[in-house]
Design brief:
The chain is an alpha+beta fold. It is 22% helix and 37% strand. The chain contains two helices and six strands; from the N terminus they run βαββββαβ. It has helices spanning 13-22, 67-81; strands at 2-8, 29-35, 42-46, 49-53, 56-65, 89-95. A four-stranded antiparallel sheet has the order 2-5-1-6, covered by helices on one side. The chain has a two-stranded antiparallel sheet with strand order 3-4. A hairpin with a 2-residue loop joins β3 (42-46) and β4 (49-53). α1 runs antiparallel to α2. The longest helix has 15 residues, at 67-81. It starts with a strand and ends in a 17-residue tail after the last strand.
Length: 112
């Protein structure tokens, strides 16, 4: 099993969700995130004063997937989230040793 984690721009979340749904992905966890990488934040002007915004708002998507589905899911996320601009985000895949569905006590792929 794999845990697929993606950090993407909030504006592309709907595109990613629709693309994953068409591929049969049934569940994901989405949370707000903020940070920076190469874009290093930006400067905004409010009532004539400049403010440096150090962190950029992002969305974190987490999906548990079988080993066989992980590559297709990561490719789908990348394709749906790509704008070609700095700050599109990152996707990484982490091995998962075990998963347990609390309600039924199912383990492994059955718990996904």
């Amino acid at each position: 099993m794999k845990l697929i984690t993606a950090i993407v721009q909030p504006a592309v979340l709907d595109n990613v969700q629709i693309a994953l749904a068409t591929k049969g992905v049934a569940g994901m966890t989405v949370s707000e995130a903020s940070g920076y990488a190469r874009q290093r934040g930006h400067v905004e002007v409010y009532r004539g004063a400049e403010f440096t915004i150090d962190f950029v708002e992002k969305v974190r998507i987490e999906i548990l997937a079988s080993d066989a589905d992980a590559e297709e899911i990561t490719t789908t996320i990348c394709d749906a989230a790509r704008t070609g601009e700095i700050g599109d985000g990152k996707v990484w895949v982490t091995p998962v040793e075990d998963v347990i569905r609390i309600r039924t006590a199912e383990r492994g792929d059955a718990a996904i």
